[in-house]
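I have a small job for you when you get a moment. Can you supply me with one protein entry, sequence and fold together? It will help me judge whether the discrete encoding reads sensibly. Write everything out right here, beneath this request:
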Amino acid sequence: VQVVQSGGGLVQSGGSLTLSCAGSGFTFSIYTITWYRQVPGKERELVASINRGSSSINYADSVKGRFTISRDEDKNKVYLQMNSLKPDDTAVYYCRADLLSRQVYWGQGTQVTVSS
């Protein structure tokens, strides 16, 4: 079982980045996928989530209108498109796959740094 993240990096304020989350070794398509982020010394924050079939999508107020979560069933991937990035978006971003909270798998985390 693996959840592998890609994307991230350094971008200037106002720029865009796309993170991706890919699952293998389990039926990725039936899992709810949630993106979290964490800054050192602070609690992990929910950023966005998307359920099986993409019928329920949720965003943190801080990213609404700027971030878009989507999933590609054929590629077994979930994406987080991040636009109009701000320095406050700087964090390590994590992808979590969960099935009714009974099976939970985490990605390795990826750094996003937004310079002012």
